[in-house]
Amino acid sequence: MSPFNQSIFHPAVFFLTGIPGLEASHIWISIPFCCLYAIAISGNGMILFVIITESSLHEPMYYFLSMLSFTDLGLCLSTLVTMLGIFWFNAREISFDTCISQMFFIHGFTFMESSVLLAMAFDRFIAICNPLRYSMILTNSRIIKVGFAIIIRGTTALVPLLLLLKRLSFCHSHVLHHSYCFHPDVMKLSCTDTKINSAFGLAIVISTAGLDSVLILLSYVLIIRSVLSIASVEERKKAFGTCISHISAVAIFYIPMISLSLVHRFGKNAPPIVHTLIANVYLLIPPVMNPIIYSVKTKQIRKAVLKLFIPKVV
């Protein structure tokens, strides 16, 4: 056996990365990250609570919003332990099996969030383009079925992807670029052929987030065409106003996701801190911003949240 083959092995651990070059300041850097996690967890938890407890919010639009908050919570909790462990205790080691498990949840909740955004786009399309049939189409039973379909779609494709990853051998550095396990990042460390893994991973992304983004765009083309046919300017503004929150949620989800994908594919010579910062933005900004956007832009959610702190608000 050649020396090169002897160096190929299956790793027991990987090493996560905090903020490259700023390791001495990790304790201070952890403060804004803790604030972001606190905002994301409390904000999405509050959205879920008010939707569950407030009977006036038991409508399709808010059911889909609760699904969005659930996926955002899942994303936050999937990275909370490893990220804060690095900043507080320099706990950079993560076992291969734990890394695989974390990848399952991170990518699973990411694909589920993409599906939820598509479902919300369909909700807005029906509400604006076919309002008379809205309650007939989006019944509670159908929404439950959509919820189960989102979970199944977001997780089943990941099982073969991660099994393919487990067959790889590694002989390069085991240092990852992020504070969590990300499939393309782990795959790059392998010294065996990863063409199947790369092709299968790309196929999953295209068939989930890629397809969802196209369908969301198509739904808004139809929505805009329908809104422009409305004679009243005020009615047009009102119709567009109901979509602003969702459009914002779509933007803050897809822009960081596309940016991270581009950095992994084309940014080999980019400084390590660029990979790390974009990766953290990708996972933290949507969970932080979505509750803020919907609390500010959606009157019913804003009133329900205010009632938690000011019971006299009606």
TrEMBL record:
Keyword Acetylation: no
Entry membrane topology: Multi-pass membrane protein
GO terms of molecular function: G protein-coupled receptor activity; olfactory receptor activity
TM region positions: 27-51, 63-88, 100-122, 143-165, 199-223, 244-267, 273-293
Pfam entry (one): 7tm_4
Chief place of localization: membrane
Ranges of residues in domain G-protein coupled receptors family 1 profile: 43-294
GO-annotated cellular components: plasma membrane
Gene3D superfamilies membership: Rhodopsin 7-helix transmembrane proteins
Keywords from the UniProt entry: Cell membrane, G-protein coupled receptor, Membrane, Olfaction, Receptor, Sensory transduction, Transducer, Transmembrane, Transmembrane helix
SMART domains: 7TM_GPCR_Srsx
Location relative to the cell: Cell membrane; Membrane
Biological-process GO terms, alphabetical: cellular response to lipid
Keyword flag Cytoplasm: no
CDD domains, sorted: 7tmA_OR51-like (cd15222)
Entry similarity comment: Belongs to the G-protein coupled receptor 1 family.
The protein's name in its UniProt record: Olfactory receptor
Species in which this protein is naturally found: Urocitellus parryii
Lineage: Eukaryota, Metazoa, Chordata, Craniata, Vertebrata
